[in-house]
UniProtKB/TrEMBL annotation:
InterPro entries cross-referenced by the UniProt entry: Acyl_CoA_acyltransferase, GNAT_dom, N-acetyltransferase
Domain N-acetyltransferase: 24-201
CDD domains: NAT_SF
Coiled-coil portions: none
Alphabetized GO MF terms: acyltransferase activity, transferring groups other than amino-acyl groups
Protein name: N-acetyltransferase domain-containing protein
Length: 201
């Protein structure tokens, strides 16, 4: 199956909004988060289920990865912006590192693709599910542009997508809990992935 294609409906503000629940705060990632993100992305068990497969070796490499979250294609008002968030555990004292993960819309063109990772020390606590629900709430509430698809076909409902390795049962469960459904599969660099999709409410 080929990958999804969808017009860019969203208008992304800069900076993006923030949102919080009783235990989590999601706020746009800044350069100051590089060390905390390196602590997550340098873990082999995190790298194993993400791209690239090798653990990050330096904060500089982490900064290069952070730069890939900036939109490079799509409408002119999207290019140079991002929707990249730090997941902060509000129960951790402010004097300590509160960033326990990150999640983002990795791209909007040719389709909005979600990515996320949390530190192994908080796996199993529901943080990824809760953070994704919070981020989706922000994403769907952003302003939209009018998209002219012509008379060729009726407009498909707007969706968000995620690509997830078939063997990554934990991440598949996170997506399903947030309402995503498998709409296809494909193989990339020898890795079998599911294509998950969620319609805009």
């Amino acid at each position: 199956m080929s990958l999804p294609q969808q017009p860019v409906y969203v208008i992304v503000p800069s900076p993006g909004p923030s949102i919080e629940s009783d235990r989590l705060l999601l706020r746009p990632i800044t350069d100051d988060d590089a060390a905390a993100l390196f602590a997550i992305r340098s873990r082999p068990e995190v790298a194993e289920m993400n791209h690239p497969k090798t653990p990050f070796k330096s904060i500089e490499e982490t900064r290069e990865w952070m730069a890939t979250k900036v939109f490079a294609s799509g409408p002119s008002d999207i290019i140079g912006r991002s929707f990249n968030y730090a997941i902060m555990d509000k129960s951790i004292p402010e004097t300590e590192e509160r960033v326990v993960g990150s999640l983002s819309i990795n791209q909007v063109d040719p389709f909005p693709e979600i990515g996320y990772a949390v530190h192994p020390s908080v796996w199993g606590k529901g943080y990824a599910t809760e953070a994704l629900q919070l981020m989706l709430k922000m994403w769907w509430e952003l302003p939209r542009r009018t998209v002219d698809t012509g008379d060729a076909c009726p407009t498909e409902p707007e969706k968000a997508f995620a690509l997830c390795e078939k063997r990554n049962a934990g991440s598949c469960r996170v997506l399903e809990k947030c309402g995503f459904r498998i709409v296809g599969d494909f193989q990339e660099e020898g890795i079998d992935l599911f294509i998950f999709a969620l319609e805009r409410p």
